[in-house]
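In this section we turn from sequence analysis to structure. A common task in structural bioinformatics is to predict how a protein folds when a small molecule is present, because the ligand can shape the pocket around it. The inputs are simple: the amino acid sequence and a SMILES string for the ligand, here manganese (II) ion. Study the lines below before reading on.
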Amino acid sequence: MNMPLSAELIAEANTRDLEALEDDYASLGRKLERAGIAIDAIKERVADFSLAVPTWGAGRGGTRFAKFPIAGEPTNIHEKLEDCAVISQLSRLTPRVSPHFPWDKVSDYGALREEAASLGLGFDAVNSNTFQDQPGQAKSYATGSLSSTVAATRQQAVEHNVECIEIGRQLGSTDLTVWVGDGTNFPGQQDLARSLDRYLDAAAQVYAALPDDWRMLLEHKMFEPAFYSTVISDWGSSILAAQELGPKAKCLVDLGHHAPNVNIEQIVARLHRFGKLGGFHFNDSKYGDDDLDSGSINPHQLFLVFNELVEAELNPREGFNPNYMIDQSHNVTDPIESMLSSAETIGACFAKALLVDREALHMAQEANDTMMAFQALRRAYNVDVSPILAMARHENGGAIDMLGTYRESRWRDRKAQERKAVGLGAGIV
Ligand SMILES: [Mn+2]
């Protein structure tokens, strides 16, 4: 293994922080014990929890208006893998990377898989890209891809997705995430029914190319880049499409891709009820974006989502195994720092959901004791679980103080000396 940061640096920083952590962990352990919860059991669950980070998230994102790169930002898949390895080494929560094609194209995927493995990383879902044109591409996606009115454009989009499956097979992936920006800006621009028909027909051709053990994750998004209608705009369109395509098609919930104030935890419960919950893209949103760091605006919503996931785990349907990934646009922070902070927040919401007294919750629900049902959730949400996460990290070789240790490593400063300056590059989905 060729980990990017020195193990000694992490160990030294942890030595400094360990006494306080042990004190906090013991204190929280006593508090949880009074509620009949063994803290070590929760810690083991947290240690087993993992999520993927996207290769595109390792670079600074941007808005429609500008992108402001930082010195030392990664400019290719190899440098992105290095940065993802830093996040994984410090957090011990993100052992997988989700690549995006053609952005991450290389000539030898076997070698790329080995390179990632040497950094302690595996590959997660592969993401296709039919929302922008590439140099030399025969047909333009300007008016759509899988739902285009032009048969040859649909065919090109199908072939690209099939190529992504083939690349993913070589990388060890078993999921293809499909998000299309297809939609319209004007009433009347396209027929709303026929555009969905064309999408379903093309998506079925992609589905037919899936290996037996693969899933096709359909990511819906209400708007952007299209601002009047989007072909797969919401969870309703997504589950209908997934049901029509077949059992390997599942729905992917990006937290930022809903109408404002939508009850996302209920959507999660609904998708699970019909065996169609395939995965998550974690981020947060204040208005209509999908860009902010997970839990930075509404950590309670994230907790409620995990509460549904823990319920789902206790009542599994059709191989409940959601794919978890961070999908944020880091416009004003060092992306490594944002993803460390986000991984901690996501892990914390999972840990809090595990602390919910399910028996008390279910009894209160059955008895229509509204206040006690609410309090069962509230008690868990109010617990500061950070010592559990920090202890799980420490025991797995990660950093107790992730951001402090990262800054001490001067990783970004050192990379600013080694890496070539970033261009204005690709955006984010
Ligand atoms: Mn997404």
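DSSP finds 15 helices and eleven strands in the chain. As an exercise, try to locate the residues that line the manganese (II) ion site and compare them with your own expectations.
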